[in-house]
Amino acid sequence: MKKKAIVCRCEDISLEDVEKAIDEGYTDIEELRKKLRIGMGPCQGRVCIQLVMKILEKKTGKEVGKINLPSSRPPIIPVCLGSIASDKNEK
Amino acid sequence: MKSKADVVIIGGGISGCGLAYNLARRGVDVLVFEKNYLTSGATGACGAGIRQQWSTYENAELAIASVKIFEKLSNELGEDIEFRQGGYLVAIHDRKEMKQAIKNVEMQRTLGLQVEILDSEGINDIVPILDVKGMKAIGATFCPTDGHANPFKTTFAYANAAKRFGANIYTHTKVTSIKKDKKRITGVITDKGSVKTEIVVNAAGIWSKDIAEIVGVNTPNIPIRKEIIATERFKPMFEAMVISFKDGIYFSQQKEGQIIGGIPSPEQKPGYKTIPTISFMQHMASTLIRYAPVLKHINLLRHWTGFYDVTPDSRPILGETKNLKGFIHCHGFSGHGFMISPMVSKLLSDFIVDGKTSEVLNNLNIDRFKDKKIEHEMSTVG
Amino acid sequence: MDGLKGDSIASALHAQGIKTLTKSLRYDLPRGFFCGIGKCSSCLMRVNGIPNIRTCIAPLLEGVKVEIQDKLPDIPDAKFQSKPKKIVSVDILVVGAGPAGLSAAIEAAKQGTKVLIADENLQIGGQLIKQTHKFFGSKYEKAGTRGIQIAVDLEKELKELEKSGNIDLMLNSTVIGCYEGKKGKHKFAIIKRKNYDSILYEVESRTVVIATGAMENMLLFTGNDLPGVYGAGAVQTLMNVFGVKPGNKVIMVGAGNVGLIVSYQLLQAGIIVDRVVEAAPIIGGYHVHAAKLRRYGVPILTSHSIIEAYGKDKVEGVVIVKLDKNWQPIKGSKEKVACDTVCLAVGLTPSTRLLYQFGVNMEFVPEAGGFVALHDDSMQTTVKGVFVAGDSSGIEEASTAMVEGKIAGVSASLLLGFNKNAKDLKKQYKKELDRLRAGPFGEKPRIAKRKIDKLLEKKNA
Amino acid sequence: MHSYEKDGILTLEDLVIPTKKQLEKGVAFIECIQEIPCNPCVDSCPVGAISMKNINAPPIVDYDKCIACGQCIGICPGLAIFLIKTKGDKVFITLQYEFLPIPIVGNKVKALNRKGEVVDTAIVKRIAKKDKTFIITIEANKDFAMEIRNIRV
């Protein structure tokens, strides 16, 4: 397997994948997220989003600050369903 | 930006992009304005299900026809939309529900839909991880050709194909005004410039009410906040979407392995607030593990809100406004816009290009709310 | 598997030379320990039948069964240990027990408020517990004291206050979300882990101090996901928390203070630091830290960058390259260097995910390290009762983080009507903060805070 | 740009060198020339020989006032303070040492310059411990008084 520069570890998305998607016209961070599942894995974008922003800036010339971050959705870390439901339905 | 177009579509969700494709394919010079990015509204928060088992004829008809299109859509658009037909298992909890189910199935079968009624044992043949006792089911209906697809990829595929046929899609472009003379549309003004057109399609989802207000048209839609969860991915265990009209829950395992599902929140109120609620998260988790106890150790990964653009009868508003030529409604999908979008956009494009109308379009016109008696869609979840 | 008490599963595996903990989803690439703080997904394993356990923070318990997952895990075969949820009400919730959070909690409790402080880690102190070096600053910020000792001192102070009943501490607990509470209060869901299970807490509080610190930045280069490529924080965790050597020969990427200090700690652990590579034309960290490394013969190469890490299942070496004035690689300057570890110290990004959920105004301020919450000089954000402090409000030093924490703690107390001497303290702490930021190394935070002030003004206008 | 910003190594031009007489008396020699917010050395000096315009200014040592007590050595978080005292053709250098193994008095150790190069062999004369920091005094050739800044055991 040829080594790659990995942007998103969770979903295994490489730099080439991101650049290709940007070339195809996905130039909004949310669009990229939905197209590639970047930031949708267990780390929820902690590792990759700042890299995607830099790649977007480099390729589109858009200032990072003008690119909105994808919305942050709870929970902050993955939590098992059993714990969340723990108030009910347990004997 | 272009200064002139045959049709301007407001809204870059599944409805807008689907219609843009169907129009562009037929040679119409079409333009889409999206104030944010493509799929930034309800499409982007969608639960991804595709169901044909409805209680009203119009919804069933639209859904059945849409599935026929979905089956070939990846090929047609040249991009994988991840359509999969794992079926929908609709739980039946009591005799009253059983009665309604039998009635629905009869109607659905007259439309040619393959759908069966299962007893409680039959449920585990379809979804082995369900605890039939825990979900308090006495049976279920099952349609094997129901399923799901990826709403983002479908929208993007429609948009890309539309562009190949010459459509122009402007994202991050907000419609600020719509020009008209006495009885017809004449143009659209955006924050990036204006364009002349005689036809405007309002496919703006929960913002369609504001768009309609610009031209003085009142719509009865209200936005209802809905919440959805997604779990971490795990090995595929079942293919069917499980739903219950009584509990309001729906969930399925996606192609990538995560479970996506929703349920009405105990705090559900109309409005534009997008903050998720803790009560939903707990209600969803406890109901989900009541249905499938083996999921207790599966991690909840994300929890988000979206909106249903809900009409008084939970059916969409489609077609032209009587007193305003060229102003076409394509909204009010009440939570099931994605699954009927292929057929809706085909019907509307037929209407715009050929002037062709149909029973469904006529029945779903905005004027139906003037009648006192409207037929309500019973089969809703989430 | 053998391990020592206090080990995490991943650190114990690492100590035995097992670096590949999982395989990547699409490309089947080996992955291992990377962030070391339970954030990234590179160490997910099946533990006692439960899939997707973050082994870098999961404690190593007697008789535990650890298995490699086949990419997507099977459904669990473990029995779920259910416990009822708990409901708690406090005046101030402090999220994060690092230097900023601890300072905020202590100050607030001293004013008489009822404080709950929650932290993800097994120990309090945040990053302090990895800081074996002495801190800079003045005597007010315990200058000349080692970070690890500061953590001990703060813990002592906290434990005293715990006796008075004003502070409750929840460790191994993550605030997973914030929600609307009743009567203007904020509601939080906290998950407290116990072994490999967890309990849900529902916490209502009138104010909150977000002191969640920062996340290390990643760098793009071929092979950046190979086991053996670590964040600097992860290297510190392995060495200073678990006593495990990350490797034998390290290439450090980044010559800011973090890169320089961690390099020195690596040397202290008897590990070879082959060289420090820095893309900028000058060393970003303090000269005194650089001098410590140079005195041990460690070269610091400015205007150099890493473009590849190679190796079959783990790092076997790197390719570095010289950069020109425009930070572009110079042709023919490629050099292959054998090593087993690459340590990345290329900056931090504030952890702001909770702040987003409150709907506070966030803006991109490069000098603060990324998107940060707009806040006033009381450290209050644009949402009433929501305060920030430390790196989550803009990347800076631990000394300033402590002072910011103190300001947030007394300001939150004042907002709630607790004022023993809060007003005077607030003035004193603000002066202290200005003093710390007065020099050239304080320029970046000064600019950051000025920008935040301006953006806030614009927002309020 | 100063060369130390690029390579991390100070040159004698960057520093204020004590006179021969001052060195014979013994002085604290501080290799801290950047403006960083740090001042424990000022507080540690019993005779007020170390001064700073403000917390960010680099420390200035009044070599005449300095009594070479060594209080400041162990307190410096940057390990940047050295006590230097010459006697005949020898120099006694006191520095912080944070590595293992800790030598014992009488050991011969390698004396390193600012680049980590071995320039001399030194003898350990004294070892003190302050908190958890070892403060070691070595004897070396006087010629290297302004060069030796580290030891290797």
Largest sheet of chain A: 2 strands, antiparallel
Assigned CATH architecture of chain A: Orthogonal Bundle
- Coarse shape of chain A: globular
How much helix, percentage-wise, in residues of chain A? Answer: 25-40%
Number of helices of chain C: 10
* CA-atom Rg of chain A in angstroms: 16 Å
The CATH architecture category of the largest domain in chain C equals 3-Layer(bba) Sandwich
State the largest interface. Answer: A-C, 42 and 59 residues
By CATH, the superfamily of the largest domain in chain C comes out as FAD/NAD(P)-binding domain
Strand content of chain A: 5-15%
Strand order in space, largest sheet of chain A: 1-2
What structural category arises from helix and sheet content of chain C? alpha/beta
Q: What structural category characterises the helix and strand content of chain A? A: mainly alpha
Jot down its keywords:
heterotetramer, A: 91 residues, mainly alpha, Arc Repressor Mutant, subunit A, 4 helices, 8% strand, C: 461 residues, alpha/beta, Ubiquitin-like (UB roll), FAD/NAD(P)-binding domain, 3 domains, seven-stranded mixed beta sheet, five-stranded parallel beta sheet, 10 helices
Helices, strands, pairings?
The complex is a heterotetramer of chains A (91), B (382), C (461) and D (153).
Chain B: E1 7-10, H1 14-25, E2 30-33, E3 49-50, H2 57-77, E4 88-92, H3 95-110, E5 116-119, H4 120-126, E6 139-143, E7 147-148, H5 151-164, E8 168-170, E9 175-180, E10 185-190, E11 193-196, E12 199-202, H6 208-214, E13 222-231, E14 241-244, E15 250-253, E16 259-262, H7 278-291, E17 299-310, E18 317-321, E19 324-331, H8 337-354, H9 359-363
Parallel strand pairs in B: 1-2, 1-12, 2-8, 4-14, 12-19
Antiparallel strand pairs in B: 3-7, 4-6, 5-6, 9-10, 10-11, 13-16, 13-17, 14-15, 15-16, 18-19
Helix pairs in contact in B: 1-5, 1-8, 2-8
Chain C: H1 9-15, E1 22-23, E2 30-31, E3 44-47, E4 50-54, E5 66-67, E6 86-95, H2 99-110, E7 115-118, H3 147-164, E8 167-170, E9 173-180, E10 186-194, E11 197-210, E12 214-216, E13 229-231, H4 232-241, E14 249-253, H5 257-268, E15 272-277, H6 287-294, E16 300-301, E17 304-310, E18 317-322, E19 335-338, E20 341-344, E21 348-350, H7 353-358, E22 362-365, E23 370-373, E24 386-388, H8 398-415, H9 422-436, H10 443-460
Parallel strand pairs in C: 6-7, 6-11, 7-8, 11-24, 13-20, 14-15, 14-20, 15-16
Antiparallel strand pairs in C: 1-2, 3-4, 3-5, 9-10, 10-11, 12-21, 17-18, 18-19, 22-23
Chain D: H1 3-7, H2 20-25, E1 27-30, H3 40-44, E2 50-51, E3 60-61, E4 81-87, E5 90-97, E6 108-112, E7 118-130, E8 133-141, E9 150-152
